[in-house]
Automatic annotation (TrEMBL):
This is Pterin-binding domain-containing protein. InterPro entries: Dihydropt_synth, Dihydropteroate_synth-like_sf, Pterin-binding_dom, PterinBD-DUF4346. Residues 136-413 form the Pterin-binding domain. GO terms for biological process: pteridine-containing compound metabolic process. It comes from Methanolapillus millepedarum. It holds the Pfam family PterinBD-DUF4346.
Length: 605
């Protein structure tokens, strides 16, 4: 595919560099910003260029462009599509264009279009793989274990405290966020009737399997009798009590139908846990081991695995057929690594038994953002042979964990199928961070000597400040506002993030012509030095500030509200729609600055 890349003056060098090595030519139009290239300028620029005699399969314009290029397509006989928004994404776009059958879009920027195509391809790959997978067991129609995808089990804690509408809303929210199974967690005080009623109600909300999570035998019996699809969790004591329950047979004092119960339990899946778990006592000292093996990592894991295997044998002996193993993931700083290793070793010895991996045991007990933690724990879980990822959303910091684990499970499986790292899949868990930084503000937009006219930075209030530099924009630069909004007669703003060091160096580097101007410049620079000395104390992640360039003034600051106040004071804005737009963009810039992200005016977050 022969491609013509259309760009402006400012991005030309970066675009030309990105296009090197591809079957593409770069057409430079005499307009500073590529998104402001009109169809008329493109037609004139192409026909007067050395490329006019060449044939092209496609022309790419800026992904930010809002112009209608139908006339240009007709006159130039070249299909015109939206390219990427930023030159930084051009190389990946051109690589994608080399693939057979690839197409661009006339309405969606190429960078976003490729991302959506990658996502669709990954989703199709996962769907086809899941349909062909051979699971170890099924909970209803849901495939568990074997080579099927890891499923997500979302727990609703203290479910008896919720009203029916609240419970329904939570269940549907979990399902819409990707939960494959909904777990009802009951407190020890919950009555049997309450357990039965809530399980029965939950089963009417959707067809998604429902599990009961309880350490009370009576609650487990109540949950099974109400039709729970899965039960968490059975240790040797619970298995023994179930056996006694079976052996006792029908009992008129019981409030459940024994025969119906026995039929239901055959369909119920049980999560089995070991009796032996790591704690500080048995990890530091184990009297049954020789002195040289006390606290031994391998010995303790062996005992834990042995305990679980024994409980699984006991469960099978009393007729429980659908079993899942859980070695109980330890929380951070309480032998997390050792407990993860026990999963790995158990799976090596018992590859056909599905495993539940309690991700929430870690994420609920560490003050860290959950997306990255859930992603990494999902990879570890997969390598340990996990079939189910378990999480509550009990605290504010873990809200969204169901959705995060669903994405993580998809990423892990897709990367396994592709034999690659879990990246560049079209799906990701990058909510605050970004794969590629967008280009920052080009200070060449400012063409006249900035003159300090006001200040607001202070050591006591560095995050609520701005100061004003007078200056002008490049004479050909016309910043775009949101399409369809009225231009402000007072002038528009170009907004960006600039490192303090770059801004300081730029101000000092501006040339002054006459002797009087040089003397005036020295006085100005002295004032600027004072202000930039204060700027050195800025503590934003990348030591950046927000710069809003207007034809009359340059507003610099770290707080969008104070900057907006200064803009109003300086009479740089007259249109209400422009004020709304400007406030939004300054706030976006402030958030990006405080998160260490890149910012590009008018771009999506």
């Amino acid at each position: 595919m022969k491609i013509l890349i259309v760009t402006g003056q400012l991005a030309f060098e970066n675009v030309q560099k990105a296009a090197t090595g591809f079957d593409a030519d770069v057409l430079r139009i005499e307009t500073p910003v590529a998104s402001l290239i009109t169809p008329q300028k493109l037609i004139a620029g192409f026909l007067s260029s050395s490329f006019a005699s060449k044939k092209y399969d496609a022309a790419l314009i800026s992904g930010f462009s809002k112009f209608d290029f139908k006339r240009a397509e007709s006159e130039l006989k070249i299909p015109i599509y939206l390219g990427p928004k930023h030159a930084a994404d051009l190389e990946s776009v051109l690589k994608s264009a080399e693939n057979a059958g690839f197409s661009f879009s006339k309405t969606v920027p190429a960078c976003e279009f490729i991302q959506s195509q990658k996502q669709a391809k990954t989703e199709k790959l996962l769907l086809e793989y899941e349909q062909k997978s051979m699971p170890a067991l099924r909970i209803g129609s849901l495939a568990i274990g074997g080579c099927s995808k890891m499923k997500v089990l979302g727990e609703i804690a203290n479910v008896e405290d919720l009203s029916r509408p609240q419970l329904k809303e939570t269940i549907l929210s979990y399902i819409s966020n990707g939960a494959d199974i909904v777990d009802l967690g009951f407190s020890p005080e919950a009555a049997e009737d309450t357990v039965q009623q809530l399980v029965s109600f939950s089963k009417t909300v959707s067809a998604v399997p429902v599990s009961v999570d309880s350490g009370q035998f009576s609650q487990i019996i109540a949950g099974i009798s109400a039709g729970a699809d899965m039960v968490l969790s059975l240790n040797s004591e619970m298995i023994h009590r179930l056996n006694l329950f079976f052996q006792s047979g029908p009992n008129e004092n019981r409030r459940i139908d024994f025969e119906s119960f026995c039929q239901k339990i055959k369909k119920t899946t049980f999560v089995v846990i070991p009796d032996f778990v790591f704690d500080e006592t048995n990890f530091d000292s184990e009297p049954d081991f020789p002195s040289e093996m006390k606290g031994s990592f391998s010995k303790l894991n062996a005992r834990k695995i042995q305990s679980l295997e024994e409980n699984i044998r006991k469960a099978k002996a009393i007729g429980l057929e659908k079993l899942i193993a859980d070695l109980i993931l330890s929380p951070p700083n309480h032998h997390l690594l050792e407990s993860a290793a026990s999963y790995f070793e158990f799976h090596r010895k018992n590859p056909h038994i599905p495993i539940l991996f309690g991700v929430g045991n870690v994420t609920e007990l560490i003050d860290a953002d959950s997306p990255g933690a859930n992603a990494l724990l999902s990879v570890i879980a997969s390598e340990c042979g996990a079939s189910i990822l378990f999480t509550p959303e009990a605290s504010a910091k873990t809200k969204g964990s169901v959705s995060e684990l669903k994405k993580a499970a998809d990423m892990v499986l897709a990367s396994k199928i592709r034999s690659s790292a879990p990246k560049d899949l079209g799906i990701d868990l990058l909510y605050l961070k970004e794969k590629r930084r967008r280009p920052g503000m080009d200070l060449d937009f400012i063409s006249a000597h900035p003159d300090l006219t006001g200040s607001g930075f202070s050591k006591s209030n560095l995050n609520a400040s701005s100061f004003v530099l007078t200056g002008t924009l490049h004479p050909d630069f016309i910043p775009g506002t949101k399409w369809g909004w009225k231009n402000d007669p007072a002038g528009n703003f170009f907004i960006g993030l600039v490192k303090v060091s770059e801004l300081s160096a730029f101000v000092r580097s501006i040339n002054v012509g006459s002797e009087s101007e040089r003397q005036a410049g020295t006085q100005i620079e002295t004032q600027i030095e004072i202000q930039f000395e204060k700027l050195k104390n800025i503590q934003t992640p990348n030591r950046e500030v927000i710069v809003a360039v207007h034809p009359k003034k340059i507003i610099i600051g770290t707080d969008s509200a104070f900057m907006m106040e200064k803009i109003i004071q300086e009479n740089l804005i007259t249109e209400l729609s422009h004020a709304a737009y400007l406030g939004r963009e300054l706030q976006k810039a402030e958030i990006a600055m405080n998160l260490g992200r890149s910012y590009a005016q008018d771009d999506a977050w």
